[in-house]
Amino acid sequence: MTGERFEVVASTVGGLPHGASGSNAAAVTAWWDPVVEPTPVELESGPGIAWIARFMSWWGVVLEGSLALLFLVPLRGGVVRWREPALLLFIMTTYPFAPVIGFAWLLLAMALAQSEWKTPTAEAAYAALFVVLHLFDESSVLWVLSRRLTGLG
After folding, report:
1. Domain count, the chain
2. pTM for this predicted structure
3. Tens of pLDDT along 27-62?
4. Angle at 77 between CA 69 and CA 82, to 5 degrees
5. Reduced DSSP (H G I as helix, E B as strand, rest coil) percent helix, strand, coil of the chain, to 5
6. What is the structure's pLDDT at 131?
7. In the chain, which ranges are E strands?
8. Domain of 47?
9. Fewer CB atoms inside 10 Å of the end CB: C or N, the chain?
10. Is 151 left (phi over 0), alpha (psi -120 to 50) or beta?
């Protein structure tokens, strides 16, 4: 509820009031002040924030746990075919909301390097995802536009 990267989701889906993200960030910053004795801080919230937090937490646990299992299984067997779809699903559902573009690109490059899909269509799909991820980067036109449309920018 204080991160700029999640502000659009927190306000549009979670119902966090406009301006609450800034005041929450200021409260957390004041709480971390080494000169002042820390006291409990109550952050502003919205009706859907708890639901979003639970969903994102469980989604991360299930998807990342699945990825770990899929990549720990030896290369033989039918389970291998699910590695790339699971990894691409992780990339597509994580980085539009937590745009750490450098890590997303690194993960995408590593996925392409180990890819079993050696068709021009698959390689074009990886290239398209590389470009699409840039559209969700915080400095991109799409990110700036979404903040303006929601009144956050």
Report:
1. 1
2. 0.70
3. 888 888 778 777 788 888 889 989 988 998 999 999
4. 50
5. 65, 0, 35
6. 84
7. none
8. 4-149
9. C
10. left
